[in-house]
Amino acid sequence: MTAPTPQPAAPEPAPPDRVWTIPNALSTLRLLGVPVFLWLVLGPEADGAALGILAFAGISDYLDGKLARALNQTSRLGVLLDPLADRLYILSTIIALTVRDIVPVWFAVLLLARDVALLALPPLLRRIGVGVALPVHYLGKAATFNLLYAFPLLLLSAGDSWLATAARPLGWAFAIWGTALYWWSGLLYCVQAGQLARRYRAHTRTSIHDPIGAHPRAGESGR
Questions:
Q1: What is the pTM of this model?
Q2: How do residues 86-128 score in pLDDT, each as one tens digit?
Q3: Which of 188, 192, 185, 179 is closest to 124 using CA atoms?
Q4: CB of 56 within 8 A of CB of 15?
Q5: Who's near 46: CB < 8 A, 6+ residues apart?
Q6: Residue 96 and residue 28: Cα distance in Å, rounded?
Q7: Cα–Cα distance between 97 and 94 in angstroms, integer?
């Protein structure tokens, strides 16, 4: 008597296609704050108000995921908006801090190079026929968390007060750790992409060489 062949786990259901939810509203407000933040930092240099926007961005980033799960308001739009807002805040803050000479150019290049490198992954996966999005890794969220803590502290360090002096080493500690996690998560995304590509190619070869066995026979579905 042979053991039954294990069946692959069923894929997780896609989030509902909803728009008007509380988490989506928070993510939208975060996105609207990006150009305001850039204007405040690069225009009148109103760092206090800019810090308020960064604080709201960090708090809402934490809340929207919690509320989506607690209120059962996950949605496809939310899955797109949340990481988009994170990336835009990181990009805009790096640009603003570099223009203001608060952080060196090499630090900005180090962070932006990771995002530019990862931009190539989805087109490469689609080119070989893999249409599955890479799952968000917890290291990526941890990196974003550290960077969103680092940026307000680094902006605060631009002043001349004792508070600025205290914020500088703390801000750089979060920035260095966040950058290390940022690149580590990027490497893990590359590994995930390679695994997806290998599984897809193996499945494609199986389908070509055994087209009948690659699909359930009549009467086998639902077992």
A1: 0.72
A2: 889 989 999 999 999 999 999 999 999 998 888 888 777 777 7
A3: 192
A4: no
A5: 40
A6: 21
A7: 5
